[in-house]
């Protein structure tokens, strides 16, 4: 498995670029959303909480799709689907990506409702969206470590 | 699409090289995260229409400094450690030298971009007559944006170099 992980033929480079680029923008968007949410936590005006949500919607979500497309592309190109069992690092990638995708969707739904409420004075759900973004940062740090360290 | 065996994920042993690679990658992600954060602030900053709004926005920026600072130091140190430890490539390989040159350019362009926005932030915090117009004009002026996007472009070139490893 370690040998397989070390092989990186040139023809997967474009797929790898798509995957890494998507992942970098995704993590950056999550860090931005989490920071804006935490910094603006006690603010009466929901300016930063709105920025947090919009960053999740317009940056993190598209980046998640790009990251995931790149991941599946690499999975097929490297013929990992032909192995009897996935390497551990692929397993970690799938678990964190699937869990992260569900949490991101949850954050977007809660934040979307919260954004409507914030216009009439509410905004608790925008806070919940920021909390999920913070949790997602931790989830994807584990994923990035696994993609680099490739535990076998 | 096949899923990991039985849904169970176990973590096996990790070599020294792979640990260094993982930390090198995390350092690169730290820089990328700061650049995305600054990009969001640059775009949002252009839409601000009061000094109070810009002050709120600037409160998010400080997290970018440690992210990009620690990331820049760790990425070069761990990158050199990887080049020394690896049998497949050396520090004097063209793509590694290109990466070091791009890293230095990234640092310099990023420093100039940072200086521009830090000066704008200080201006916003100082306040006073006519400051609002000046702060908003600086946020909308192409100078800061160009410097920031130049930093992003250099980072993308660095990413391309790392992945495609030209002349390796």
Key phrases:
heterodimer; A: mainly alpha; elongated; disordered N terminus; B: 168 residues; mainly alpha; 76% helix
3D structure, described in words:
With 152 residues, chain A is mainly alpha-helical. Chain A has helices at 2-6, 13-39, 47-77, 88-118, 124-149. Chain A starts with a helix and ends with a helix. Chain B has 168 residues and is mostly helical. In chain B, helix 4 runs antiparallel to helix 5. Chain B is elongated, with a radius of gyration of 20 Å. Chain B starts with 15 loop residues before the first helix and ends with a helix. At the A-B interface, helix 2, helix 3, helix 4 and helix 5 of A face helix 1, helix 2 and helix 6 of B.
**Percent of sequence in beta strands of chain B:** under 5%
Number of strands of chain A: 0
The proportion of residues forming helix of chain A, as a percent range, comes to: over 70%
Uncertain segments of chain A of ≥5 residues (pLDDT<50)?
Answer: 1-7
Please estimate the helix content of chain B.
over 70%
Which structural class do the helices and strands of chain B define? Answer: mainly alpha
Count every helix of chain A, treating DSSP H or I runs of 4 or more residues as helices. 5
Question: pLDDT below 50 for ≥5 consecutive residues: which ranges of chain B?
Answer: 1-7
pLDDT averaged residue by residue of chain B: 91
The arrangement of helices and strands of chain B along the chain is HHHHHH
Number of beta-strand segments of chain B: 0
**Largest chain-chain contact?**
A-B, 47 and 44 residues
Reported for the largest beta sheet of chain A, the result is: none
- Mean pLDDT rating of chain A: 88
Distance between the termini of chain B: 33 Å
* SSE class of chain A: mainly alpha
Radius of gyration of chain A: 17 Å
Instruction: Give the oligomeric state.
Output: heterodimer
Radius of gyration of chain B: 20 Å
First and last CA, distance of chain A: 6 Å
